[in-house]
Amino acid sequence: MIAADGQSPTDQIAGLIDSGSLSGWDLLIVLIVLILTWIGSRAGRRAAMRLLAKTDAVPYEVAYTCSRAVGYFIVLLGVGIALSVLGAQIQPVLAAVILIAVVAYFALRGVADNFGASLILQMRKPLRVGDWVETDDRWGAVTDMNARSVVLHTSDGKVIHVPNAQLLSDPLVIQPSDAPVRSEIEIRTTELGRIEEIATTAVTLATGADGVMATPAPDLVWVASTPDRMIGRIRIWHKSGASTAVGSHVVRAVGEGLGAAGLAASLTAPPPPPPLVPTPTL
């Protein structure tokens, strides 16, 4: 096969190499470089595969592709060194490789960022499957961790995929699955003359509600007062991810118990946001 300029591919390859200055030592060095390249390529692929296999978030297909990419890179590097020993002009080849690398970087930057972040998350292990996580106003239980994202399941059934890179760059609140969580229930009463009785009864009833931990013990703090009303917070501890169910149990138990004791109070779980009130005049 003859190229458009009249030269065959063999002649074109020969034109890249300065055959007049080659010696037996040069050929020996090229042979050694190629052998070392072959060995290094296989060793690099195996090392990359072993390293990525230790990371649970990296699927086998991704690890296999990355290990092959490492092997190809070592081969290209070795071929470039061999061509330079033979006196070939490899500047155009290097320019093309750099251009391809730049294009690949911008095209795969997001994928690479998330993949690198997944490796850091696996090595540092700040969170595990089952933990509750809050980031960027998203709150849910971790159900899966992969090379691209962390999958969260919210309490209302939604599935959220949070990119791994975002977990490293944004503030991250983690509630371990095996650690207790504190919740609050708002209590309001107009019986200002029976505040101590209401507080003692409410805490006793909250302690016996389903899902409430005995240690730390529940308590009640008063947080607001008006001439005709007192507002407080019943603070309870429970297992992670059970705030809604346990809050419901406490509201029912305390409400029914206070009613049976003839104490008037209203409860809300979780506490509503404070109302907007005008700034008092001093």
TrEMBL record:
Any Pfam family: MS_channel_2nd
Record bears the keyword Acyltransferase: no
Segments forming domain Mechanosensitive ion channel MscS: 112-170
Subcellular localization(s) per the UniProt record: Membrane
GO cellular component: a single term: membrane
GO MF annotation list: mechanosensitive monoatomic ion channel activity
Transmembrane segments annotated in the record for this chain: 22-41, 62-83, 89-108
Keywords, in A-Z order: Membrane, Transmembrane, Transmembrane helix
The protein, known as: Miniconductance mechanosensitive channel MscM
Organism: Occultella aeris
